[in-house]
Amino acid sequence: TQTQPQSTTPADPAKAAAIRELSREHVFVSWSAQAKVDPLPLAGGLGARFWDYEGNSYLDFTSQLVNVNIGYQHPRLVAAVQEAAGRLMTVGPNFANEGRAEAARLISERAPERMRKVFFTNGGAEAVENAIRMARAHTGRHKVLASYRSYHGATSGALSLTGEARRWGTEPGLPGIVHFWGPYLYRSTFHATTPEEESERALAHLRQTVLAENPQNVAAIILEPVVGTNGILVPPPGYLEGVRALCDEFGIMFIADEVMAGFGRTGKWFAFSRWGVRPDLITFAKGVNSGYVPLGGVVISDEVGASFEETPYVGGLTYSGHALATASAAAAITIMEDEGIVDNAEQLGSDVIGPALAELADKHAAIGEVRGLGVFWAVELVADRQTREPLGAEKVAAVVQACKERGMWPSPVSNRLHLVPPCVMTAEEAREGIAALDEALSAAL
Ligand code: PMP
């Protein structure tokens, strides 16, 4: 039974076919074997729904690439972008600009104390490149430690930091990068059985890695406070605090990559704030303006910033703090604050998504674990609950297809379904989406 709520775009299958044809002919698609990829043409969206040209509407549990935190076509944000476009479309970094100044203030006000400056980029990968460059210049050291279970972006340095398999194709990559294992209790590297044990052992392993690399050569440890693409892994108690303490002990910069977790995804402006740690550098992108215009950046502690007061920072971008991008960020943050959108994400997680997924896990043997917070959830699908063997790709694909047929669009990553809706999703929409997943699991497996 396919649900097809009304969209505001009239069905136009001929248009969809034309877009598909042109795309197949001329568009080179990210991360894909070009002959095997054929993305659905999108016609429009509003709030937590998007729709195609065939008259099908979907509850969005992807937020595109986990970035549309404010939802589709938020009327106030669309109006702010239009207004900014009417003033002055482009202002380079050699001139000051109102939107850039305002966005930087609003971002730094949401960061910990004494993190007053923001360097703007066009997206997350460039933010990561600049954060590690700043850490290296500030410390005079060259090594950077990153987790195996991480994604930090697809430019050369960011992909070298990325721990998962997508790094392999571009190796040897950037020199001086060393990987370590972070906590993941469900598939523990450390044979831990409790969150406390996992935290303690992961910290011992990280410490050993730092010592083996010579702490005097380690500029930074970069990590996602809540790991995103590689599993939506919420850190166990004490882990982030332990990383902070280790960094303090050896003068290492703590870079929190908040590109995915930041700006509402976890129900907070920044995920690390849940654990009370203060990073030295914060990378952000995605949710800062929900990708209405490309934007990313680095929030810089006053200590790191001091290194570049008299000595120039070697780095820059033509579009650093682009007028439209920063005006949209200033507007997005103001709207999210006014409308309680970050709090909505928090409550949706604790009151609706969390409990509903726990119920599903009781009911379906294929669910090994559900975990997450805010609007940042993973459903880990397994072939066998005892051995925790991941569910096979064909079966996962069947579940995904069954969800889509029921008007719910999840984000599959290996054997997991990531459920990462816009922060503006309503409780009713979340329940409807999870009910569709419930049916889909019964139908497909
Ligand atoms: N860091 C993290 C944690 C991310 O999730 C991503 C994107 N998924 C990036 C960096 C890279 O961001 P972008 O694609 O904007 O370059």
Automatic annotation (TrEMBL):
Pfam families noted in UniProt: Aminotran_3
Keywords on record: Pyridoxal phosphate
PROSITE patterns in UniProt: AA_TRANSFER_CLASS_3
TM stretches of this protein: none
Keyword Iron: no
A GO molecular-function annotation: transaminase activity
Required co-factors: pyridoxal 5'-phosphate
GO cellular component, one term: cytosol
Family: Belongs to the class-III pyridoxal-phosphate-dependent aminotransferase family.
NCBIfam families: PRK06062.1 (NF004718)
The protein, known as: Taurine--2-oxoglutarate transaminase
UniProt organism field: Ornithinicoccus hortensis
Lineage: Bacteria, Bacillati, Actinomycetota, Actinomycetes, Micrococcales
